[in-house]
Design a protein that fits this description.
Number of helices: 14
Oligomer: single chain
CATH class of the largest domain: Alpha Beta
Structural class: alpha/beta
Order of helices and strands: EHHHHHEHHEHEEHEHEEHHEHEH
Radius of gyration: 18 Å
Strand content: 15-25%
Number of strands: 10
Shape: globular
CATH topology of the largest domain: Malonyl-Coenzyme A Acyl Carrier Protein, domain 2
Largest sheet: 6 strands, mixed
Number of domains: 2
Distance between the termini: 20 Å
Strand order of the largest sheet: 8-7-2-1-9-10
CATH architecture of the largest domain: 3-Layer(aba) Sandwich
Length: 308
């Protein structure tokens, strides 16, 4: 069995997807449609802009989705499609890419939702008040307890359970800094403050969750062609109403990536294709499911390797 997985924020680089657009008209059409949906040439920023502007949350989110969908359309042009996957999943914003690939959301709606999601997440907390940190070398239970102990009345919570030894915490800056120091005291190999502009996947994102609830209520969501693993539940979802509800919960809820991959391997998945920019998910999957076959689909040469 096979799962298609889609990356989240942090994978962005200038030039991503350009080789795909040059090699495949279907991939080029994705970027053109996203540009039209947003009313601006996002593709120019992706291919020739500056990384600081691309990394702004409201740009990075639709840009990464566009790159993933361009890779997916290139796969389709070579005879691979959603029917070749038994499940799809995505990390944070990647869940939107997964839903789009599975036919639950249109490309234009996905682009507009992610532009709104990125802007709302950025605006939810004044710059400098929130922070995130990656804790390496401790499991989720240990980091979750550290976050609770360090909160001291502020928000500090485990936000991303990425793999057995990498958990990201999020919340008020001072609380996250306390948690990072406490993690080192309790045996973490490293505790790294992350260069992010907001405390994603924490309770501080509630204003963004409200904005997404309003936006999603106005969007048609179809039943996906294959089950989508919901970040906040680490289990498959196919019913449009549940998809809508869980996408709202995802804004403030933890990304349960480790459990998602464990669910998939338990369901019989032995092969994962990471579709889009970077290889971050591939590294996580290899640390979670050591026997799994992991492939990357981000440039034409990757697709040629799949064919050959």
């Amino acid at each position: 069995m096979r799962a298609f997985v889609f990356p989240g924020q942090g994978a962005q680089v200038i030039g991503m997807g350009r080789e795909l657009a040059e090699a495949y008209p279907a991939a080029r059409a994705v970027f053109a449609e996203v540009d039209e949906a947003l009313g601006e040439p996002l593709s120019e920023l992706i291919w020739t802009g500056d990384i600081e502007t691309l990394t702004l949350t409201q740009n990075a989110q639709p840009a990464l989705m566009a790159t993933s969908m361009a890779a997916f359309r290139a796969l389709e042009a070579e005879g691979f499609g959603i029917g070749d996957a038994d499940f799809v999943a995505g990390h944070s914003l990647g869940e939107y890419s997964a839903l789009c690939a599975a036919g639950a959301l249109t490309l234009a709606d996905t682009a507009r939702l992610l532009r709104l999601r990125g802007a709302a997440m950025q605006e939810a907390v004044p710059v400098g008040q929130g922070a995130m940190a990656a804790i390496l070398g401790l499991d989720y239970a240990a980091v979750d307890q550290i976050a609770r102990d360090a909160a001291e009345g502020e928000v500090c919570q485990a936000a991303n359970d990425n793999d057995p030894a990498q958990v990201v915490i999020s919340g008020h800056r001072e609380a996250v800094e306390r948690a990072a120091a406490l993690a080192r005291e309790r045996g973490a190999k490293r505790a790294l403050m992350l260069p992010v502009s907001a405390p994603f996947h924490s309770a501080l994102m509630q204003p963004a969750a409200a904005a997404m609830a309003e936006a999603l209520a106005a969007i048609e969501i179809s039943a996906p062609e294959v089950p989508v693993i919901a970040n906040v539940r680490a289990e498959p979802v196919t019913e449009p109403g549940a998809i809508r509800r869980l996408l709202v919960e995802q804004v403030t809820g933890a990304v349960r990536w480790r459990e998602s991959i464990e669910f998939l391997t338990g369901a019989g998945v032995t092969e994962f294709w990471e579709i889009g920019a970077g290889k971050a998910l591939s590294g996580m999957i290899r640390r979670i499911a050591k026997e799994a076959v992991v492939r990357n689909v981000g440039v034409p040469a990757d697709i040629a390797a799949l064919k050959g």
